[in-house]
Amino acid sequence: MDIYDLIAQAIARKQQVIATYNGYRREMCPHVLGLNKRGERQALFYQFAGDSSRGLGAPGSRHNWRCIPIDELGDVSVREGDWHSAPNHTRPQTCVYQVDVEVSY
What is the pLDDT of residues 8-38, one digit of tens each? Predict the structure, then answer.
């Protein structure tokens, strides 16, 4: 299955995504999937575990949002687990310009 389709399915089922990006293993919950302003596939994730060049804030921190180009993800898998987000999840996002899939609350 294409990574884009796998992440779309994870959004619909509220599943966690585990992947590598920029050399770091990340555990994330995908919230929005689509295209950026350049027409590239991109997603907005909430990272709740793993590593990051910036580190992670406390659980629920607004600093754990990650805007990631889909084609730069590696070793992608999905799993069942708790859904993670931040209280500011309802604020308008600018990561994905053309939204194809968005999590429902």
Answer: 999 999 999 999 999 999 999 999 999 999 9
Candidates 82, 88, 84, 39; CA nearest to 62 is 88
CA-to-CA dists, residue 61 to 9, 47, 66, 81, 92, angstroms: 25, 10, 12, 19, 17
Q: Would you give the distance in Å from CA 15 to the centre of its chain? A: 11
The number of domains in the chain is 1
Decide: 48 and 27 in contact? Cβ < 8 Å: yes
Owning domain of residue 35: 3-102
Residue 70 in contact with residue 43, Cβ under 8 Å?
yes
Contact 41, 71 (CB under 8 A): yes
pTM: 0.93
DSSP state of 47: E
